Amino acid sequence: MVTIDGSFGEGGGQILRTSLALSLVTGKPFSIHNIRAGRKKPGLMRQHLTAVNAAAEIGQAAIEGNRIGSQAFTFKPDMIKSGNYHFAIGSAGSCTLVFQTILPALLIAGEPSEIILEGGTHNPFAPPFDFLEKAFLPVISRMGPKVDAVLEKPGFYPAGGGRFKVSINPAGLKKIELLERGDIIHKAARASVANLPVKIANRELKIIREMLEWGREQLNAVNVENSQGPGNILTIEIESENITEVFTGFGEKGVSAETVAKRAVKSVQEYLAANIPVGRHLSDQLLIPMALSGGGKFRTLSPTKHTTTNAEIIKKFIDVDIAINEYEQNRWEIELWNG
């Protein structure tokens, strides 16, 4: 049995989700302790418990200790079962993170699957749906499987109430290299508000126009009408020849629309200046599928603690080497190969 210390590295839910995902695909049981020890409220929160139970259902696993607040549990998977699933968090907890926990197993399952997930779709502490749809899933589809996601209702933090549907046609994962971004072919920014004045969106887009010098035709203010609660997200999309990257900013109480936009713009400017294909958040998400494919290589910005922690947890389940090196100033290369 693999033993995982949840306080290692970044010390958050990423360790838990990666362990669940790789336990399913390798069939290796694991035990974990000190769950989310690096957080103000350690242990399993509702979204983490949903991920644990979803993984158990898909992997027909035996589990002990799966309850709210638990800081340790064991997970013993059996066979991966494809099919139709419906998982609801019951809060604004991120259902995109639940999805990413169970996706690797369903990518290599024997039959197609369809999943409905309910909860937070636009949460500042997780990849928003837009990132999954435009940045992450297109890369997965290039590796062999076909994954399509449709947002049926947005769920902003803290109200939640969102819903999206995913169809997965599994296939063997092929190795992929992402070394050059290529020419930029499309740039767009969308500021969305739900149950809030649309002038907030317009103020954010004004900053985009001024700081990135984009034309009005590249900017879009959206008034979301089917949201359960208030919310604001700024999404900036950079589509290049070889990849699409998505950057986001979330409105929050006490933070001006201008500050939200400036933070997002800063991330875009750093990405464009480095002339690399993969942004920081996407680099974190690509490690598991590349490890399952037997290898791969991509160029990115300096790795986050999420990324380095994820790499170490992956190596506990899969015989793979992961090299993370700075090859030029602020330009990094991550390579995976079978150990």
Shape: globular
Radius of gyration: 19 Å
Chain-averaged pLDDT = 95
Total beta strands: 16
> Can you tell me the number of structural domains?
4
Number of helices: 8
* Name of the CATH first level of the largest domain: Alpha Beta
What's the arrangement of secondary structure elements?
Elements: E1 2-5, H1 13-26, E2 30-33, H2 46-59, E3 62-64, E4 72-76, E5 84-88, H3 95-107, E6 113-119, H4 129-142, E7 146-153, E8 162-169, E9 176-178, E10 184-194, H5 199-212, E11 219-224, E12 231-240, E13 244-250, H6 257-274, H7 280-293, E14 295-300, H8 305-317, E15 320-328, E16 331-338
Parallel strand pairs: 1-2, 5-6, 9-14, 10-11
Antiparallel strand pairs: 2-4, 3-4, 6-8, 7-8, 10-12, 12-13, 14-16, 15-16
Helix pairs in contact: 1-2, 1-3, 1-8, 2-3, 4-7, 5-6, 7-8
Task: Write structural notes for this entry.
The structure is a single chain. This protein is an alpha/beta fold and 339 residues long. It folds into 4 domains: 1-79, Translation Initiation Factor IF3 (2-Layer Sandwich), CATH 3.30.110; 82-174, UDP-n-acetylglucosamine1-carboxyvinyl-transferase, Chain, CATH 3.65.10; 184-274, 2-Layer Sandwich (Dihydrodipicolinate Reductase, domain 2), CATH 3.30.360.20; 277-339, Ribosomal Protein S8, Chain: A, domain 1, CATH 3.30.1370. Helix content is 34%, strand content 31%. The chain is built from 8 helices and 16 strands. The chain has helices at residues 13-26, 46-59, 95-107, 129-142, 199-212, 257-274, 280-293, 305-317; strands at residues 2-5, 30-33, 62-64, 72-76, 84-88, 113-119, 146-153, 162-169, 176-178, 184-194, 219-224, 231-240, 244-250, 295-300, 320-328, 331-338. The protein has a 4-stranded mixed β-sheet with strand order 1-2-4-3, covered by helices on one side. A 4-stranded mixed β-sheet has the order 5-6-8-7, covered by helices on one side. Strands 9-14-16-15 form a 4-stranded mixed β-sheet, covered by helices on one side. α1 runs parallel beside α2 (46-59), α2 (46-59) runs parallel beside α3 and α4 packs parallel to α7 (280-293). The chain is globular. It starts with a strand and ends with a strand.
